[in-house]
């Protein structure tokens, strides 16, 4: 059974267009989420590792994409109703943007999933300064 995980991360930017590019385009996602990303129609392909050597490839269906709001995907090998979503929103108090992550973990895998998202966000901060 899957358990819903919801995470929130503050970004160091006031630029909504920069955040949208980071979460909705292959160029943006490649900076922090995977080593390579391709979009074809409503299918996103994510590659981790060296494509010429050892690597892992997964594809996801883009279920919903609302400009300057969120992108929702479902791994194509998922056999339940789980999805993962990256949502951007603006904090009126600090003026910065935040990312809201929704994902699903199997029993006993929630800590690993949170660790992976934390590592991805750390990579986002390091590489982009956002």
Keywords:
130 residues; 43% strand
Gyration radius (Cα, Å) is: 15 Å
Query: How would you name the oligomeric state of the polypeptide chains in this document?
Result: single chain
Strand order of the largest sheet: 1-7-6-5-4-3-2
SS class:
alpha+beta
Proportion of residues in β-strands: 35-45%
| Helix segment tally | 3
Gross morphology? globular
How many β-strands, per DSSP? Answer: 7
Q: How would you sum up the major sheet?
A: 7 strands, antiparallel
Mean pLDDT: 94
Poorly predicted regions are none
Proportion of residues in helical segments: 25-40%
N-end to C-end Cα span: 35 Å
What is the string of helix and strand elements?
EHHEEEEEEH
Description:
The chain has 130 residues and is α+β, with helices and mostly antiparallel strands. It is built from three helices and seven strands. Strand 4 and strand 5 form a beta hairpin. The mean pLDDT is 94.
């Amino acid at each position: 059974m899957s358990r819903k995980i919801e995470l929130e991360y503050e970004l160091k930017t006031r630029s909504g267009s920069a955040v949208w590019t980071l979460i909705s385009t292959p160029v943006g996602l490649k900076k922090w989420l995977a080593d390579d990303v391709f979009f074809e129609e409503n299918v996103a392909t994510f590659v981790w590792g060296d494509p010429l050597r050892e690597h892992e490839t997964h594809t996801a269906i883009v279920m919903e994409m609302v400009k300057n709001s969120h992108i929702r995907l479902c791994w194509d090998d998922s056999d339940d109703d789980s999805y993962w979503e990256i949502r951007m929103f603006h904090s009126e108090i600090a003026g910065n943007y935040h990312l809201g992550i929704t994902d699903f973990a199997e029993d006993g895998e929630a800590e690993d999933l949170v660790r992976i998202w934390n590592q991805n966000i750390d990579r986002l901060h390091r590489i982009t300064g956002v």
